[in-house]
Amino acid sequence: MSKEEKKIKKAKTNAPVAPKKRFFNVEKRLGYTLHEMWVHKMSYAMIAPFFIIFITFSLLPLIASLALSFTYWNIFEDPVFNGLHNYVYLFVDDSLFLKAFTNTLTYAVIVGPVSYVASYFFAWFINQVPDKIRPLYVLAFYAPALSSGVAMAVVWAVMFSNDSTGYLNSLLLNLGLIYEPIQWLQDVNYIMPVIIIVALWSSLSTQFLSFVAGFRGVDRELYDAASVDGVTSRFQKLLYVDVPQTMPQLLFSAVITITSSFSVGATIVGHPSPEDAALTIMLHLSDYSGTRFEVGYASAIAVILSVMILGIGRVAFKVLGDKE
Questions:
Q1: Tally of CB atoms within 10 A around 279
Q2: Assign residue 230 a region: left if phi > 0, alpha if psi is -120 to 50, beta otherwise?
Q3: Residues 206-231: pLDDT tens digits?
Q4: Residue 6 has pLDDT above 70, yes or no
Q5: At what angle do helices 95-127 and 188-201 cross, to 10 degrees?
Q6: 143-174 pLDDT per residue, tens
Q7: Quick check: 138 and 124 in contact, CB under 8 A?
Q8: Which residues are CB-contacts of 248 (< 8 A; sequence separation ≥ 6)?
Q9: Integer distance in angstroms from the first to the last C-alpha of the chain?
Q10: Distance separating alpha carbons of residues 76 and 287, to the nearest angstrom
Q11: Helix spans in 202-294 (H)
Q12: By the 8 A CB rule, do 213 and 127 touch?
């Protein structure tokens, strides 16, 4: 073989191989996915109701809100496309939205982490008590979440009543700490602290039950194995055994806490509140959608709120999801 023939053969050998057509890979993956769905058809049939409900009542409304956020729509007329006008007005001219955003962020930054840590701590505490009385402890800690609506309307409203007959004002007056009733639900300096106190009182809800179930699922043999490795104190067992074993519950509860903290609506103060001190993004959204019928603008508020929740939820997945 001559030198020229060798060069031609070598060039053909080193020539780059043409990539496979993308549509072939997509078609192959789609076929594989459909095959797997058919093999596990019973499992997909069992979870189908959830997906149908999720798509119908969560995904499709979110897509519709995104589309309507670029329009002006008052329900009675056809939507009119107005581009980014709703978003520009939201961040530039709507001072109430900035007030609602600040109040919501303040509420979420305090109530979210505190309730999250408290739920985990109390669930861990309940896990230490004997099995016979554990249900009583769970009921005692979970009861405020069950009765939060009635409690806000009756107990807490009387507790923080603005006159001298309120429990807290009456106590402070009898002790000589104050000389006139404090306007707990009217003074803008006290409204947000009152809301946060009531929210923390009833914050042991779904995430608390999730943590209780998570601690019950920890293998008891892991504690014995940890003791052999020198882990003796309860705090060390919590750090090296309980936290890694309850990581799925930590992630689930983080998502629930983030969602509930940023989507807070009506509170003990009521709406509207003095100087909008208790105005939240959800209440602002409700004003435009249910009172003013400006659905396009309300959709823009809903999109911003959804982006906030999804963004912070994504951070939670990054921090806790990789440790499962």
A1: 22
A2: left
A3: 889 999 999 988 888 888 888 888 87
A4: no
A5: 30
A6: 888 876 666 667 788 888 888 778 888 888 88
A7: no
A8: 214, 324
A9: 61
A10: 17
A11: 206-216, 220-228, 234-237, 243-245, 247-262, 281-286
A12: no
Token pair recorded at residue 205: 């809800």
Tokens (6 digits) for 223:
């504690």
- Alpha helix locations (H) across the chain? 3-14, 22-39, 41-54, 60-68, 85-92, 95-127, 134-146, 148-153, 155-159, 167-174, 188-201, 206-216, 220-228, 234-237, 243-245, 247-262, 281-286, 295-320
DSSP-derived 3-state class of residue 72:
strand
Rounded distance, CA 70 to CA 68, Å?
5
For residue 123 the two structure tokens come to: 């669930």
Tokens 């951070």: give the residue: 315
Q: How far is it, in rounded angstroms, from Cα 12 to Cα 19?
A: 16
Q: What is the pLDDT of residue 150?
A: 65
